[in-house]
Write a structure and sequence with these properties.
- The chain has helices at 6-15, 20-30, 39-45, 55-60, 69-80, 85-98, 106-109, 166-174, 194-207, 220-223, 234-246, 266-277, 296-308, 325-328, 332-344, 424-427, and strands at 3-5, 36-38, 113-114, 117-118, 122-126, 129-132, 181-184, 213-218, 250-256, 281-288, 312-318, 354-359, 363-373, 376-386, 396-399.
- The relative contact order is 0.09.
- Strands 5-6-7-8-9-10-11-12-13-14-15 form an eleven-stranded mixed sheet. A two-stranded antiparallel ribbon has the order 1-2. The chain has a two-stranded antiparallel sheet with strand order 3-4.
- Helix 2 (20-30) packs across helix 5 (69-80).
- By secondary structure, the chain is an alpha/beta fold.
C-alpha cells in the first residue's frame, strides 16, 4: 500500500493540480496536525476535478482554517523564514497543546490502574466497556482531518495512549467482571497484522468469560477495504472473527463511514459481505462535520445504503472540542436540524442512528430536540451513557443557544430555575 504524508502529500496535491498557494497552506497546517492518505483514498474516493471542495478531499487534506488564525500565521512565518527544524518542532508542540489534544477528561478521569500502575493504553469510562489502545495499532490507513484522536499521530509520546502488553488487559479485566465489552481502538486496530491482533483478542476468549462482546473501531472499510479481502492476511482475519463468534462472543466491527461515497466502491461492498459471512456484525458511526457531510440528504443516503448492505446505523456524533473543531464544527442547533431532516428521509430500519450525540466528559449526551420550559426555549437532553449509571435516561434541559457547539458551552435556564449541569454531581 502506498501512503502519502508530509512532503509526499504535498507532491501528490501538486501532481493532481492543486495551486501553489494551497501547497503552502498544506505545509503550514501539516506542520501542526497530522495528515496521511493512501492510494485507495487518492485514486478511488477523491474527485480531483472538484477539489478542493470535494468532500473526501476536505476530509483528508489540510485547509488553512483548520488552525486558529494566530497559530497559522505563527507557523507560516517560521516556515517562510526557513526556521530550523528544532524551532519548528517546539512551535508545533506549543500549538498542539492549544488545540486541546485530550478532550473529555480522557487522561485525568478514564485511565485505570493495575497493581498501582496507570494503564495508559486503557480507558474505562463506562462500567460495562473498556477501550484498549494496542501499541501496534496507533496509526491509520489514512487520517481524517476531524479525528479527535489526532494526538495519537503527532509523534509525541506524552500525548499518546498505548498499551504494550496484552497481559495488562486481561489482568485488569480479571478484577472487573462488570466489563462485558472490550473495544479495540486507536489509531485503528485493523492496521495491525492479524497475528498481532490475535495476541490481543484470543486471550479474551480463553481467560475472560465475563467479556461477551469484542468491538473493533475501524475506518479500514472506508479507507482500505483490501484489509478484509485481498490483503496478505485477510483470510486469517476472517478466521479470527469466525473463531470469536464460534466461542460465543458477539463480534462488532464499529465502522466509521463519513460520506456515502465511501460505501459505493466494489471493493468496500465485497469487504462488507466477507465480514458478514463470519457471523460478525457491522455498525456505522461518524461525526457530523462541516465541509464533508453537513447535508441531510448525504446522511439519508448513507444510512439507507448501510441498511441495504446489512450495516446498522449507530451514531451521528457532534464534532468534539479538539483539533480542527473550529473548521469542522457546527452549532448544535444546525446539527439537530440536519439529524431530524435526515431521519425523516429514511424508513424505520435506518432510524437506529442516534444523534446528535456529544461524547463529553460526563458521558454520551443526546440532543432530543427543543421545548419551552418555564416560558424559556430549551434544549431537551439525556445521557445515553454516563460515568454514573443513574444519570442514564434522565431528561434534562439547557438554555437554547444558537451558537453553542459543545456540552461545556451550554448554560442553565435562567427563567425556570432548572439547573445545568443537570445533576449536582456534575457541577462539583
Amino acid at each position: 500500500m502506498k501512503h502519502y504524508a508530509n512532503e509526499r502529500l504535498a507532491q501528490l496535491a501538486q501532481d493532481r493540480g492543486m495551486p501553489g498557494e494551497y501547497i503552502r497552506d498544506l505545509r503550514v497546517v501539516g506542520s501542526v496536525l497530522p495528515f496521511k492518505v493512501n492510494e485507495y483514498v487518492a485514486d478511488e474516493l477523491i474527485d480531483w476535478s472538484a477539489a478542493p471542495d470535494d468532500p473526501i478531499f476536505r476530509l483528508t487534506f489540510p485547509h488553512r482554517d483548520m488552525l486558529p488564525a494566530d497559530v497559522f500565521d505563527r507557523m507560516a512565518a517560521l516556515l517562510d523564514a526557513g526556521a530550523p527544524r528544532d524551532e519548528l518542532r517546539r512551535a508545533a508542540a506549543a500549538a498542539q497543546l492549544e488545540l486541546n489534544p485530550h478532550p473529555g477528561d480522557q487522561l485525568e478521569a478514564n485511565v485505570p490502574t493495575l497493581d498501582g500502575r496507570r494503564l495508559d493504553g486503557l480507558q474505562h469510562k463506562y462500567a460495562e466497556t473498556v477501550l484498549v489502545f494496542p501499541s501496534q495499532g496507533q496509526t491509520c490507513h489514512s487520517y481524517c482531518g476531524y479525528c479527535f484522536r489526532w494526538a495519537q499521530f503527532v509523534s509525541r509520546a506524552e500525548l499518546r495512549q498505548a498499551l504494550r502488553d496484552p497481559a495488562d488487559l486481561t489482568g485488569y479485566l480479571g478484577g472487573h467482571p462488570e466489563v462485558t465489552d472490550v473495544l479495540f481502538t486507536g489509531g485503528d486496530p485493523m492496521i495491525m497484522r492479524t497475528e498481532v491482533l490475535r495476541r490481543w483478542a484470543e486471550p479474551l476468549l480463553e481467560e475472560t468469560p465475563s467479556v461477551r462482546t469484542l468491538r473493533f473501531g475501524t475506518k479500514a472499510l472506508a479507507y482500505w477495504p483490501a484489509r478484509f479481502t485481498t490483503g496478505p492476511d485477510a483470510d486469517d482475519l476472517m478466521r479470527l472473527f469466525e473463531s470469536a463468534v464460534a466461542a460465543g462472543r458477539h463480534v462488532a466491527v464499529m465502522a466509521h463511514f463519513s460520506h456515502p461515497r465511501e460505501l459505493e466502491t466494489e471493493q468496500v461492498r465485497t469487504a462488507i459481505a466477507r465480514i458478514h459471512a463470519t457471523g460478525a456484525v457491522i455498525r456505522a458511526q461518524a461525526p457530523l462535520v462541516a465541509h464533508v457531510n453537513d447535508d441531510a440528504s448525504a446522511w439519508s443516503r448513507m444510512w439507507q445504503t448501510q441498511v441495504e448492505l446489512g450495516i446498522t446505523p449507530y451514531y451521528m456524533f457532534v464534532e468534539r472540542d479538539t483539533g480542527a473543531r473550529n473548521y469542522f464544527g457546527l452549532p448544535l442547533v444546525r446539527a439537530l436540524e440536519i439529524y431530524n431532516e435526515a431521519v425523516r428521509g429514511v424508513s424505520g430500519l435506518a432510524r437506529t442512528a442516534r444523534g446528535p450525540v456529544m461524547s463529553a466528559g460526563p458521558g454520551k449526551v443526546m440532543i432530543h430536540g427543543t421545548a419551552e420550559v418555564g416560558g424559556e426555549k430549551a434544549f431537551v437532553l439525556s445521557f445515553l451513557q454516563a460515568r454514573r449509571p443513574e444519570w442514564v435516561g434522565r431528561p434534562f434541559f439547557a438554555a437554547y443557544d444558537e451558537h453553542a457547539q459543545w456540552y461545556d458551552e451550554l448554560k442553565p435556564l435562567s427563567a425556570s430555575g432548572a439547573s445545568f449541569p443537570p445533576f449536582p454531581e456534575l457541577a462539583a
